[in-house]
Amino acid sequence: MAGPLSISLVSFSQEALTTILKGSILSSLNDSKLLSPKKREFVYFEIKKYAKVALLQFVSNKFIDNYGLTYSIYYGLKKLVVKSGLKNPYLLIDGNYNFSRFDKNLSYKSIVKGDSKIASIAAASIIAKVNRDWFMQKMSSKFPEYEFEKHKGYGTKVHIKNIEKFGYCRIHRKTFVIKKGTKNWEQESIK
Do residues 60 and 7 touch, judged by C-beta distance below 8 A? Predict the structure, then answer.
């Protein structure tokens, strides 16, 4: 609900992938959400050591508000491909995305829960999450009333309570609305 979209592109050499699959390196590589913050940071630095490519791209909350979440993900991916210098890469993407309305030539495969199945997706998930968490920590000092250090901008009860009390700040995604339908709060994109 707040802060940038954080996207990462990670590529390992075939040798590194073989070693990862044997469990000799990056044995803690997993879905970033399943690792503690301390473990995630440890694995982050290990990924940086073994990856052939490990790049990050933030897409601002304002961009998301203007173009929607799916296009923002596509835009971030395209920027990462350019940064990487990789020629015609085949991307493995966590989730269930169809970018064909934006680009008929992008070579990719969306994999639901890919961050728990594919080493490079898990690594990209960790790179993206650690960098976003660090960013939200910095934003916490600029906007202390929102307590970003606790929830990193996700739609927690604390965050929603603070939005209700203080309104949105400049890093909130204004096209995400809070709805009260059930026992739990949810967020949905209105784009």
Answer: no
Residue of 3, 38, 1 lying closest to 139 (CA atoms): 3
CATH of the domain at 18: 3.30.420.10
What secondary structure, in 3-state letters, does 22-34 show?
HCCCCCCCCCHHH
Distance CA 34, CA 78 (A): 27
Beta carbons of 128 and 6 less than 8 angstroms apart: yes
Greatest CA separation found in the chain? 53
Q: Are 190 and 21 in contact (CB under 8 A)?
A: no
Q: For residue 135, give the H/E element and its range.
A: helix 119-142
The tally of CA atoms less than 13 A away on the side-chain side of residue 74 is 17
Work out the percent of the chain whose per-residue pLDDT is above 70.
92
Our separate counts of H helices and E strands in the chain read 7, 6
Whole domain around residue 78: which residue ranges? Answer: 5-189
Report how many domains make up the chain.
Answer: 1
State CA 111 to chain mean position distance: 15
Q: Which of 72-81, 108-117, 162-171, 173-182 has the lowest mean pLDDT?
A: 173-182
Average pLDDT over residues 26-43: 93
Q: What share of the chain is helix, strand, coil (3-state, %, to 5)?
A: 50, 20, 35
Radius of gyration of the chain (CA): 17
